[in-house]
Amino acid sequence: MTRRYLNAPALLREYGLQPKKSLGQNFLIDPSGLDKVMQAAGLSPEDTVLEIGAGLGSLTVLLAQTVRRVIAVEIDRGLIAPLTEAVSEYDNVQIVEGDILKIPPEELNLGEAYLVVANIPYYISSAIIRRLLETQNRPARIVLTVQQEVAERICAKDGKFSLLALSVQVFGVPRIQARIAAGCFYPAPDVDSAVLSITLYPQPLIATEELDTFFRLARAGFSQKRKTLRNTLSAGLGLPAVQAESLLTAAGIDPRRRAETLSIAEWGRLTDAWKRTQPSDFPGE
């Protein structure tokens, strides 16, 4: 049976609400767009799913029909009433009012091997992804609708890395599973979206105890994209240029290269070289 569009404008009027630009609210209402998210998620009846930004409940209902348990987090207090009504016939949905960036993960009682499936606001997509990847209890898989350009940056290959791509790919494998036109949302955003999946590794590619150093070096390296690593590491770490050059040489990396050209393995070698040669000089250690 073909599902109808959610009449979001009418429902919002019924509750005396309007989409809030300050919260990046663009509700996914098109059935074909929702189906793309569900297909990309690859859910089973035994799954536990964390949904971030449940909104008016169009995706929440589909999740509730498919999986064992749904924890739906929504920051906008005004949306709690229509969301509660949308899922009123399902006893496997727990609605949590709050900011996912501030809620301690243990409070959500997610268990192990949970999944994240969500239509998230563009403006905090990077922050939400970092939160999910850097928490101690990481999900097994993440499926999100994000701005298409952001999804493409995250999925970049060696030679075209950004700090965001590096930050995601050290934890898992990202893939663009589908594209969703702007008209599938209400209100329609200015750009199209992509359904991004991230399948997490059992353990990050960099040892957990080395991640802080890895990211400190990466942030320094990417701090001035057009400059060589010799210069960016010197400026970002407060090192003499000759010392930054020696560090890169010790890692087997040409000091004239730029950060975007390094693979994760090379960033790992740089981390090892730093820890091996001068751990006591590193800021914050």
Question: What does this entry look like structurally?
Answer:
The chain has 285 residues and is of the alpha/beta class. It has two domains: 8-200, Rossmann fold; 208-281, rRNA adenine dimethylase, C-terminal domain (Helicase, Ruva Protein, domain 3). The chain contains eleven helices and nine strands. Strands 4-3-2-5-6-9-7 form a seven-stranded mixed β-sheet. Strands 1-8 form a two-stranded antiparallel sheet. Strand 3, helix 4 and strand 4 form a beta-alpha-beta unit. Helix 8 packs across helix 9 (229-237) and helix 8 (211-221) crosses helix 11 (264-277). It is elongated and about 65 Å long. Mean pLDDT is 93; it is low at 281-285.
Low-confidence regions: 281-285
Estimated radius of gyration: 21 Å
Q: Report the average pLDDT across residues.
A: 93
The CATH class name of the largest domain reads: Alpha Beta
Q: Determine the number of helices (DSSP H or I, runs of at least 4 residues).
A: 11
CATH architecture of the largest domain: 3-Layer(aba) Sandwich
Succession of helices and strands: HEHEHEHEEHEHHEEEHHHH
- How many domains? The number is 2
Q: Which structural class do the helices and strands define?
A: alpha/beta
CATH fourth-tier homologous superfamily of the largest domain: Vaccinia Virus protein VP39
Helix content: 25-40%
- Terminal CA distance reads 59 Å
CATH topology title of the largest domain: Rossmann fold
Strand adjacency order, main sheet: 4-3-2-5-6-9-7
- The tally of beta strands, per DSSP, is 9
Largest beta sheet, briefly? Answer: 7 strands, mixed
Shape: elongated
Strand content: 15-25%
